[in-house]
Write a structure and sequence with these properties.
Layout lengths: L11 H13 L9 H19 L12 E7 L3 E11 L2 E10 L7 E7 L10 H12 L3 E5 L19 H4 L9 H18 L3 E11 L1 H12 L3 E7 L22 H4 L2 H7 L5 E7 L8 H17 L6 E6 L7 H16 L35 H17 L6 H19 L10 E3 L3 E3 L2 E10 L2 E10 L8 E6 L3 H6 L1 H8 L3 E5 L20 H10 L3 H16 L10 E5 L3 H10 L6 E5 L30 H6 L6 E4 L11 H7 L1 H9 L6 E4 L4 H5 L3
Parallel strand pairs: 4-5, 4-6, 6-7, 7-8, 8-9, 14-15, 14-16, 16-17, 17-18, 18-19
Antiparallel strand pairs: 1-2, 2-3, 3-5, 10-12, 11-12, 12-13, 13-15
Helix pairs in contact: 1-15, 5-6, 8-9, 16-17
Length: about 675
Amino acid sequence: MPPVLPNPAPDALTQFMVAAAAQRRANDRPPRTQAELAEQRTQLRQQIFASIGEYPETHVPLQAKIVEELPRTDYRIEKLLFQTRPDVWVTATAYVPNNLGSRKVPAVLAVHGHWPWARRDPVVQARCLGLVKLGFFVLAIDATGAGERHTAPGRGTYHGALYGATLWPSGQSLLGVQVYDNFRAVEYLKSRPEVDGTKLGITGASGGGNQSMNAGALIEDFRCVVPVCSVGNYQAYLRAACCVCEVMPNALRFTEEGAILGLLTAPRHLMVINATRDANQFSPVEAKKSVAFAQSVYDLLGAGNHLAHRIFESGHDYSQPMREAMYGWMTLALKNEGKGDPIPEPKFEVETPETLAIFNGPKRPVVTRMLPEVASQLGQAEVAKRNTLAPTHAQQWEATAIMQRNALQPVLGLPRELPKPIAELGKRETEGGFVRIPGILQGEAGPIPFRMMGLSNRLGTGAPVLALSLEGKEAALASPLVQQYAKAGHLILAPDLRGIGETASRSDAIAGAPDHNSAEHAIWLGYPLLGQWVTDVQTILKWMAIQPNPMAQLTLLGIGHASMIALTVAALDPALPGQVVVQQPMTSWVTPTAYPSGTPMGVLVPGILRVADVPHLAAMIAPRPLTIVDGITASGVRLGLDALTAAFQFTQTVYRVMAVEKRLRIRWRPNLLNLVQGE
């Protein structure tokens, strides 16, 4: 079929989010008094931990184990493990100066970015070796889900996309889990007899630079913080790709990067390093905005000389000149020596990644849980809490559902008002007994192209079906179930929701996630794509309500992952008439493995499980008719009838308590004609 829009709109979603972010942060300014600073600092810490996830209530023993020691001329290398959560082991390398005797020395935590070998990569080793030769104790750790902490350890492991995003629904984040690992690493450093626990620093580049900035801001034990090729401006991320580990959910609702640097890090020593040929979000131009904000805070505290900004002619790296600048700054801050000028790098030889390996292949000598398993346990704990809401009488559930709807609104970031529903219809096209009418509805984020389809001899008389697919309107119209509805005389409306079909963003797919960049940008904004799609559907329904077709007989149909949109829209609006049909919905957000390739990240909402899992959303539709057709686990496994029925046990309980159990239909591989006819 020809496109509906006169011109493609691949930038519409990005432009909407960029404008929304700019509006939200337009009034940011540094504090003017120390009292104002103290108040803003307290508030910002609370907001960040609410965003990235709180620390566990109890801290398990570290149970540190030195697996092997590698003696070298003037230092030794220790390959070690320590525990941060139950059965979660950090793989680490310690670089220890020789001949310390009873002396204690400053220590630096070296966190890596997305270099192929993680903590063992030559780029990461270089800063560790330079520091240990200058008399620092150095601890390098593998980030959660990276290096030897990946499910399949090896070169080039990646902890982002559909692997790291498994944490989001539980209200945790990869960024937050990394900060907690760094907090436990500080505990380990303080336990070492060689380390002066009052003189700690942290540094890293790229994703490691983000770790350095965030951990350095939130863990005040770090007296010196050096993020490299990572500081820029949060709003700049909305035009770039980044890793899940760099995403601070909802950040643009409450802060910008300059506040992290200033409000939380000052007056401790901070050196920001940027490169002239880096990506825009890490560019000197963007970084200067954040550094300027931070400088105001440092000046307010009388510590203006504790902040430095160094720019190097370079690409994305942690080059020798950058390392030498870091050596000088760490020496000033932690040893009180020099003026912070660069220190020439000592000569060293890096080890092979194999030499620093703790595990031989995928087999591990300790029981250790991988990142998705941690996410699954956290998610299951939240689902267990939601399951306690199962009612014993109808009034109880009605009150619970109101509470759940109120809690769901902010999680989805929904606006207070919908745009005025204005649509323009195009020329009718008749083919094969069907009439198709293109249309364009003005939505919150730009045009929403759609296509209506119905029998040519009954157009305008059939009950409407709003058919949703995250593959776009043409895929929805081609669906066998939608075709069956059309043949039965229903009027079909299938839209391209924002970022889908004719409005799909450019180069959006990364590592198996078709909407990776847009989904991350939306989470930065605090308006997840699921929430944005819900707004689009609500706008469409508002327009449909003023059309002549009988909305009382509406079928809201979600196909595949778009089922999550249909369930959410209906759950939020108890006055929505008609019935809901979902075909092959994901039956839970909880998975013990990475989400499978092809899963839209837009349906993964930070903190959604703290309000409802899929069966709880479905229950909020009661007493209206709901049909669940087939289903898959979050891991992508298709369920049989018994497993599908068991997955929606909570939903069945609610429908039974509401005395409308016959309005809930769970069907497995049904005859589509019978399904459409209500059998």
